[in-house]
Amino acid sequence: MTLSGKTVTRTWEYIPEDIIAVPSKIDFGLLKPGDKVTKQFTLKNPTNIEVTINKLKLKRNLKEFIIESKDFPCTIAAGMSKTIDVSATAIKDVPDFYYDYVIAELPCYDIEIDTLSFKSGDPIVWIADANWGTIPVNVERVKTVEIINQGSVPVILDKMDWQDKVHFPRIENLNLPITLQKGETHEFQVYYKADVPGVTHKTTALFEGNTTKTKLYSDWEGQGMIVGTLITSYNWYNKKVDEKLFDDPILGYKGFVELSAIGNTKLINVNVKIENDVDGVFSFNQSEVPHEIVGDAVAIPLTVYFKPKTEKAYTALITLSGEFNSSVKSFSAVLKGNGIATDIDNSTISNLRNFEITPNPTKDYIDIKFNDPKLIYNYQLKLINLDGTIILSKEIIGENQRIIFNKKIPTGVYFIELIDNSSCQIFSKKIIIE
Fold it and tell me: Which residues have CB under 8 Å from 322's CB, separation 6+?
């Protein structure tokens, strides 16, 4: 009320300061050690009054993030905006997830306006090669190539090309870009077709992605031939040293191989022989061998026999040869068989075939587990890398086992082989060591 007796009313309206960031979340993606990425966000004043920002700061104050824009304090008029630069750097050589929050300090209060994040790590990939050996001319053959993520962070492959598209005309099941998570594999198919005999064709498929480790290429190689012989291998596996069980009382256990010719021609003066059979346990009937074989025809079966004499593993070569244009063509395959005692319980071998490995992936140990833990197993364990090098070898007699790696083993893909000491059979499984 005034001195004159009148009443005066005044109204004050408080409009709070506000500020928003667009975008409100910034993901810097996957950064390798030493990588630095700078991005921007926009500060916007959504009110109808000017807003003063004293400074921007990080809530967690991680040194991996830096607010590059330094011109504070600043005032943003109503409805106006300001661009801010922020950066992220992968400082540590350790795979991890990093995040922090951008805080705007206003005159009356602080407000959280943005989230910053990235993943760190060094992607590691290994890509297999493909070798067709010798194949018939003008016949297309396919090989499968495996891609393996050997690291702990995702691998992204977005480009791939190779030079020789005449002899390696196409691929399948590789729709780039692809992303492989930790321990994941991807297989694709490559086709090869030789146009001339006796010439080796080579090319290299080069990949590009978010990594340069470890093997970012695939070597492809093959050679063409017009004519040749082909004979298949045979493995009798475990056969008891007992004449009562033989398929033939004189020759032993029966098996078979297939004889064929490669190419559009005919082989004459065909001959089959067994070589390196020092114990004389493998045989066949020479009268069953054909005099000629026509190329690309149905393969011809040939009965072969295995007569084990004692408890041991036997191996020999069986060679098929034939003449074409006065030139002898030959090809060798392997005959295998294991002689075992009549009182051996094959259930142990069967259970050894179905062993399990845990954990997989692993770091410093593995557990070998069998279907029947009551059985006593006698076997040799080997840890082998992709180059075929034996990293660990150990003789084991017992039940389920824990194998501890006493030394640091490089990360990657390996194979565990179990060799049964009674049957000489080999069983293998793939593991990943981190």
Answer: 229, 261, 267, 268, 269, 270, 271, 292, 293, 328, 329, 330
Distance between CA atoms of residues 253 and 247, nearest Å: 5
Residue 415 DSSP SS3? strand
pLDDT for res 349: 47
Sheet of 282-284: strand order equals: 228-231, 253-262, 300-306, 282-284
Task: Give all domains of the chain, ordered by start, each with its CATH number.
Answer: 20-120 (2.60.40.10), 132-220 (2.60.40.10), 228-340 (2.60.40.10), 346-433 (2.60.40.3080)
Ramachandran angles phi, psi of 348, nearest 5°: -65, -45
Identify the three-state secondary structure at position 83.
strand
Q: What is the mean pLDDT of residues 219-227?
A: 83
CB environment 340-375: b (16+ within 10 A), e (fewer)? beeeeeeebbebbeebebeeeebeeebebebeeeee
* Strand-pair category, 200-209 with 155-161: antiparallel
Least confident of 42-46, 122-126, 263-267, 313-317: 263-267
Beta-carbon count within 10 A of 254 CB: 13
- pLDDT tens-digit series, residues 236-266: 878 888 888 899 999 999 998 988 886 656 7
